[in-house]
Amino acid sequence: MSALATYNPTARIQITFAQDTPAGVFVKADGTISGAGTLAIGVTENAYNSGDVGSIIISETALIKSAGVMAQGDLVMSDASGYGVTAVAGNYANGILLKSAVANEYVEILLKTVKI
Q1: Which residues, 6+ apart, have CB-to-CB distance to 27 below 8 Å?
Q2: How many independent structural domains does the chain possess?
Q3: Which of 25, 40, 104, 111 could form a Cys-Cys staple with 34, CB 3.0–4.6 A?
Q4: Are 64 and 95 in contact (CB under 8 A)?
Q5: What is the pLDDT of residues 21-42, one digit of tens each?
Q6: Which of 78, 101, 71 is closest to 21 using CA atoms?
């Protein structure tokens, strides 16, 4: 993760990961990476292997890896790999981008879930 990126998580929970999962992706309650536009319960802070028990951030801010260019204030949803992209109608947004991002950058989001 970028040495300059900051975040302020206030709550974490532990889950069992059902697949190898990189840091900075949206994850679902069943321990899998969130698919495109799906509901996520949190964001990974570290990478985990399938079967690992580890924590995910569920409240306040987290670092998500961006899959493309996004503008500050954009609603952020998961792409097919769990990375952050600008949310589109008919999907779940799982956060709000706190600064503009380019592809493959770790950026801070405020964790908020809304169906758009």
Answers
A1: 15, 17, 21, 33, 34, 40, 41, 42, 43, 44, 56, 82
A2: 1
A3: 40
A4: yes
A5: 999 999 999 999 999 999 999 9
A6: 78
Q: What is the pLDDT of residue 1?
A: 44
3-state secondary structure 62-100: EEEEECCCECCCCEEEECCCCCEEECCCCCEEEEEECCC
Helix (H, G, I), strand (E, B) or coil at 38: coil
Residue 10's Cβ-side half-sphere holds a number of Cα atoms within 13 Å equal to 5
For residue 103, give the 3-state DSSP assignment. coil
Nearest to 107 by CA among 55, 99, 115: 99
> Where in the sequence is the domain holding 33, given as residue range(s)?
1-116
Question: What is residue 86's predicted lDDT score, i.e. its pLDDT?
Answer: 98
Alpha carbon 2 to chain centroid, angstroms? 15
Torsional class of 109: left (φ above 0), alpha (ψ -120 to 50), beta (otherwise): beta
List of residues 6+ apart from 4 with CB closer than 8 A: none
